């Protein structure tokens, strides 16, 4: 007999058609004591899954019987069965049954007073799960606020004789700290007093929950902790060194949270000398870590295929366009998961004491800056040159963790440390080589600021060797570090392109699945960094064959398309006309991906999961890269496709990332082949106007940028559409705390609208002129000079915009500045992509015959003297 892989699931689903099946399951769980406990528990877990999937279809008699049996058996003598019953209870409760099961909470609270330990523990276990899963409902009028009774009840059990009960009690209350539940806030002093009483409890689980509570209270009730802060810090120093690593990890979170508080520097400065060695000690690999990572075995594992389940799901970050001035590299949105920079031990726990200690040291370095060096430098001197590899490795991690916060103070030591680290890249231990890659990447900015032959060339040479290391972990670390170096070095790498490409291309033949994804990113970052310097026949011949081979190998449904398409987008932009031989099949496949995804979305609107739209997003971004790189050479491809129709649908998608990438593509196609975009402008402009919502920063940014590009192409024909967008743009430029890139694009787009449609923009001049000028670092003195804005004429506005046009065009041609279209992607591990490029012109090439005549220049000189001092 041949069974299908999902036969068991199918059989269970068939059994659900029998009304009494769930009665049998609860019977096995609660009554069939003759069965072994794992079987009884499994029956309960099957019932739990049925409740999640089909509870609304249970007959009333069945659901009532299950509820009754749960409450009667919450005190089963078996801890496993009690836990299973508790899981079943909270699953039923989370299906909206708290309202329909009014006796549940009173009954469980009553059972807490039972003299039978099993009953008390079982009831508390169930209550803890309910508090975790239904905290919001419990704190609502819907249930007549049961927490007013429950929280004082829980506090009574903080002094219970059983450590398990004490732990349950703290865990229940902890669920309501962050939400500042009123019932808890009324008893906050008693809660804190009870926590202090349990600080030295002999049970690790109790100590862990005490630490967790104090960490959360640090965020929400610092006022109550502040009088006791000295003692709390001393306590957390002890717990961070707890023999139980779970307790130590929970305590270590305290330092991360404290670093975010305004009082951190004041309350912690006198404890730095004690805290620093504790954190440094926590950054060593534990014995278990070393075993799991095979740290004591020099493993050449490059030929061993990756375990597919170890490769994390990868989601594409949509393309964001930016027009940046002042040489600033700030993107729209910082990667909010900075801790992922603290190197990636993917075969051990994602978050452990080592990583938490390193993250804490990192954030504290940003708080204390060079003051942290006083306690840490003596430790570093000992660690970095220690004969034991585990200790040396931790020292290298420490050096990387303090890089951002203590950079100024470290500069004096880097001429000695960087060569030492470069030597460590050849260490016999793979874990030392891999962490050294990461730490060197943290100092890449300083390396690039020095003469190339001194540090950059030796570092680049050794990193490229490590990219071809025989250990997969080292390959990964080296590839990620080299991508960071590429971002910092940019065109400094041009003399070494042949050597770099030779190494990266050779890595295609060495890398297993996971590291291939990182290799794509390193290649894409290289293309972003060196730009058109990559457009040479010998480089193209080296780079494109392996990329196109992978492109042809992958199916449309393969998630590996994400990083490959991202890579090709950067490569296409850099190669410009050099990408022409490859553009047609790439373009057509991208269009097909968009079309296929839209079709699936429309046919399965409720079932189609958001991550699946990444296929469409990444295809739109590659089309943008093609348009930017090929310029008007893309015109025939656009003419032969339905991309504008598809783009119209994408611009109205519910998913912000889809709209974000659609607007980026619209702007790039506007620049490359406006003759095909122009017939659709009447349809596109209302959509752009409705997406000028600064709450969705990246969507708003790209829509703003696209409007500016369209304005320049449309000229005076833009007049019917100005009213659709100008009010929103003026609101954005006046909005406090607007992200810099959005502010830049908004200011430029308003200027472009004023340039092509001064009659329509002039009436709103008073509402935007001040922030507009301030943004461009113009010192606005008109108020102090007594000049009232209404006297400004349409002619003056037009010439003012033209003057700005001339100024920015000169800046664009003379200055190297960050990109006019910048992609923000996630690398593995995550990192912000900030690639400096040459700025595009903010306005069309000016007709110098239109430079304002002298009288107008003088009027402008009165209006904005500093602007004209720097512009003419």
The whole-angstrom Rg is: 32 Å
Largest sheet: 2 strands, antiparallel
State the share of residues found in helices, binned by percent: 55-70%
DSSP summary: helix tally: 48
Query: Which strand order does the major sheet show?
Result: 1-2
Structural class: mainly alpha
Q: What is the number of strand segments?
A: 2
Indicate the overall shape: globular
Distance separating the two termini? 88 Å
Oligomeric nature of the chains: single chain
Give unreliable regions as ranges: 1-5, 322-341, 778-793, 806-872
Mean pLDDT across the residues is 83
Strand content: under 5%
GO biological process, one term: protein import into nucleus
GO molecular function: small GTPase binding
Protein name: Transportin-1
Domain Importin N-terminal: 9-76
How would you describe this protein?
It is a single chain. The protein is mainly α and 872 residues long. Among the domains are: 1-133, no CATH class; 136-262, Alpha Horseshoe (Leucine-rich Repeat Variant). The protein is built from 48 helices and two strands. Strands 1-2 form a two-stranded antiparallel sheet. Helix 33 packs antiparallel against helix 34 and helix 34 (614-630) runs parallel beside helix 37 (656-672). The longest helix is centred in the last third of the chain and has 24 residues, at 580-603. The N and C termini lie far apart (88 Å). The relative contact order is 0.05. The model is unreliable at 1-5, 322-341, 778-793 and 806-872 (pLDDT under 50).
